[in-house]
Amino acid sequence: MTLIDPRTPVIVGVAQYGDRVSEPDAALTPLAMLEKVARDALADSGADSGAAAGALAGLDWLTVIRTFPDSAPVFKPPFWGYTNLPRSLANRLGASPARLTYPHAGGNTPQWFINMYCEAIARGEAEICLLAGVEALRTAARVQKTGIVPDWSEDPGGPAPEVIGDDRPGVSRAEMAHQMIMPTSVYPLFENALGHHYGRDPVRHRQALGALMQPFTEVAAGNPWSALASPRTAAELCEPSDDNRYIAYPYTKYFNANMFVDQAAAVWVMSTAAADRLGVPRDRRCYLHGAADTTEKWYVSERVNYYSSPAIAIGAAEALGQAGRGIADMALVDIYSCFPVAVEVAAD
Fold first, then answer.
1. What is the pLDDT of residue 1?
2. Greatest CA separation found in the chain?
3. pTM
């Protein structure tokens, strides 16, 4: 048997939750969703019966990804009153972690925290870490149409969580003046630039997008946690219709990321020693072999071009180098897919 350093970090449990059917008065609150996925992820670890209490008692670092309501005032419903989601979640779990974090907004933050957790565990600065995130914009939007006022508030008291990350605004003054603000306006700029880079005329490029994303709809249709579980043809995706209007060319509605969802997810990361102590089976352990964090030029208008991502190329090469592997060795590659161009650029 190969001996593993007891400080080697390992992912031991994951869980997700999604609700696309409940009426507003029956849907779980954001905090209830966080608690559910945190406990489900711990159960997913397969730890010994009764070990959950040990994991919660030994929790060193808990992070909740910043929500849309706390990131942008336009998405904050009048009944949103959570003042410290990390501490509220810790209290619900009966845990007292030494470190609570609630980072600045960023699409990279979930993977960034997995990387940071692993570094902290390897250095002996933590043994057990929990990462969780939640959004309930679907119910929030529907509730405001019904007149129901849910109880989405809690002030657990105590010190505020640590806030880390980049707090710069996402757009410059010049970009704001030209309405380069919302992702639905910016990503189409990338997409049209990429179509030109590929040498495609607009119609042919739009058809290629339909062919690219069509298999994604088939996967979503078989995923019980997906927000939209309807398989669609390439033509249905790329051709405008009464139910599939243009948002910003070449993106019809079906090409756009959907943030009006009720979804949550959680991940437990711990040292190999902690996993051994809690009886986590070997086949429930996932070791991180390489990781990297890179940053593009912050403002879109300062990018070198709109059809490539040097940061992804550098980061992927660094992570693969740490693992001692090449891209040809990978059986599966998971790519962030908020919009088609994110898939295309990362694949390139």
1. 47
2. 62
3. 0.94
